[in-house]
Amino acid sequence: MMNKEIKIIAESARKNTLKAIKRSKLTDKSSKMKLIPSTDEIVRKASSISKTTSLNKLEKTLAESILNDLDLTKKEFNDLIKLYG
Length: 85
Prior knowledge:
mainly alpha; 0% strand; 5 helices
């Protein structure tokens, strides 16, 4: 997979994760949004994930990985996954 594709997918994953948080019912949205890593950090994570994941599943896998790092309850996590574009 090309680095350019990975960067586009990482940017999309970050943007859609932020959108999902904004649309969510979380009480501390701004603090959760601050914990979202930069696109460059997501690209590094994507590079290792992309070796075992197909291109069309990579964005959702990245989003789940980002959300896992936000210290969410299982219900909050599932709600955000449903809101994820």
